Protein 1
Amino acid sequence: MSRIAVGVIAALSLCAATPAFAQQSAASTTQLNARVVPYGDLNLDSRSGADTMLRRIDNASRYVCGDRTGPRPMQENGSVHACMHESMETAVNDLGHPNVSDRYYGNTPEVIVGDEDGDYAYPGKEQ
């Protein structure tokens, strides 16, 4: 069976209702934006592959959340950043790859070596 080559990132973005649509329900002003994030060409077990995947997810999050350059009102800025954070986290969790998740959450493995006497060597510890 071939490897699935795409993941999907989705984020809800609230569209501003104009006064002409003021009588419509709030549900009708919610729109689902999605962006396909390909990763079939990546080795997600490698650091560079996981980092590339995270950059692709970040770019897709910016797209679906409406991030743009230039000045914008603080409220819009906060909404965009909240949307990006939520969509990034959702995409990483939906992907479910341990290396990508570890890179996203900043987890790094730590090895502690001990001898029979109970003396332990920690990375960076002077002996």
Note: Residues 6-121 form one domain.
Protein 2
Amino acid sequence: MDPALNDRTQFPSFYRTIPNAEVEIDGIVQGLKHFGWKWVGLIVSGDEIGYRAGERISKELESIGGCLAFVAHSVTLSLNIVEEIVKTTANVIVMFINPEMNFIPWFLFYKLPPKLWITSFNYNVISFNLNEMKTTLNGSLSLMIQEGEIPGFGQFFHTFSPNNYPNDALIAYTWQLIFNCYFTDTSSPIWKIINKPVKPCTGNETFSEADVSVYGNRNYRVTYRVYTAVYALARALHNLYSAQPPANHWGRLETLKRKVKPWQINQFVRNVTFTTFPNDTHSFDKYGDPPGQFDIIKLLFLPGHCILKTKVGTFNGSDNKATFYINNSADLWGPYFNTIPQSLCNEPCAPGYRKSKREGAPSCCYDCVPCVDGEISNTSDAPSCFKCPGYEMSNKQRTACVPKMINYLSYEETLGASLASIALVLFLTTSAVQGVFVKYWETPIVRANNQNLSCLLLISLMLCFLCTLLFIGRPTQICCLLRQVTFGPGSKLKKYVGTQLPIVLVTFCSLGNIGICIVWMTYGPPFLEADILSERDTITLQCNEGSGYFFFCIIGYIGTLALLSFIAAFLAKDFPDRFNEAKNITFSMLGFCSVWGAFVPAYLSSKGSRMVAVEIFAILSSSAGLLGCIFAPKCYIIFLKPGLNTRVVAARNY
């Protein structure tokens, strides 16, 4: 079975009737894959075939994420092999050794834990007569070459006697082994090992049904392969002598007279094809191998040295694609396991976890690490977690991606409701002040400043308070545009720096603000965006200013006007004025500049709904500062100091 014999240059006339060892190795590998055994112990012979089997099995296990718990060679001290079996956590052990490399007698001295053994065809189970061996290997699965029937051989088997072959030592030894007896003129080392008295052999012992179940019935394996080898040679000779030229250039009659050389029959053996009972077709491939067909046998050791061999599946490695079949209705796992045994280095990682290499451990031994927030795994033993899309987040178990919550400054939350309430209160307050000014339109305190500009300023303040409501609620594209256009931020109110400015100056400053807004809306308008980066578990709907350059141009333009207003009012604060208009304007501009000066860093450092709240707060506080500093003193005089609101008192200041 050595694969090296496949070299047709060195061995052009070598043919097998037993499949190549590599096909058997493939069968074992297919079984490990079929049952999902990824943590396996391996015992192989210390020759080239054993090392090749170890490399092949190890490589195939790695391809499915498995590895070998240990590798022991039968040339190693048997005690070391037993120690490996005792300490391993693997429930499955593969034994691929030659019959002559037998370490099993060491099982006599140790009580080994229950394992499922996978044995190769090479290992001779006939020698399992010791109770300790039967206990250890009971329930093992063995890959055996396909059985076949030899017509007439069953009758020969039942009438067989070693007395007919007195000079055949092998027959005598086998007879002693089967019937637990000895011939008086021979001795066997195995009886010295077990140290038990045995009876003499007569040669007339008969096979019981138990013996037949162990050693032979009408279907045979190795014997059948010997039969097919003889049959193949006979068929080749038949083809040789019956062939016509030019296949046989001698001619039929001349061939019968010639003495055929062994090499001359090689081409006929290579091309031979024949059928045996019952309809088994035999041939050789280009390497001289027969069809790689195996039976999967369950071995149960019964009382009375009886071995029950149950066929539970098949493996066909002769096809381009190997086929592995298991009869699931058969009792596969008794007597030590009720269901398919698990043989893993550690439990599989559940969904929501990923595998993490365990330092210093074999490749299939790993730790299970939970996926980080925003990543999931939805399969067992996931090698890695994968990130959720930007609009989704991982659930609590890290097994699925779920949509993120939509976040924006809404009327339902405390902050949004509070800011909206403040805006409405300030709007109503400004409306009341507007009504007071209309009622006292001809009084000196109202006339002290340009009445029309005062009215325009109050209307602008009311619009500013109302425009903050555009910042609250689910944003839309229209809202994003109106937010900046209606306030800009500040619109007309920040261009008004005092009641003494002409209408022309106010109009001119307003046109500058409007011009910047038009260019902004044309080349880089604000737009609605979904921010998925600021907060891990939520999507923040917000208005992006579009061109940041134009946004800060607006702020710079209004800031410049406010600064000029502050300077002008500050220089005029000492002018004679009964109602302190210049001082009021100075304080209002000082408050306005302070608010918007602090707004820039606060705005840049805020994200999401907090950024919107900062902008609303800046609008409300700066507008409220103007309302309080400019109009509160006037209302104070109108309601609490009406004596000062007369022409006589006002005339004293001039």
Note: The chain has three domains: 3-161+204-234+275-281+291-326, 353-403, 414-651.
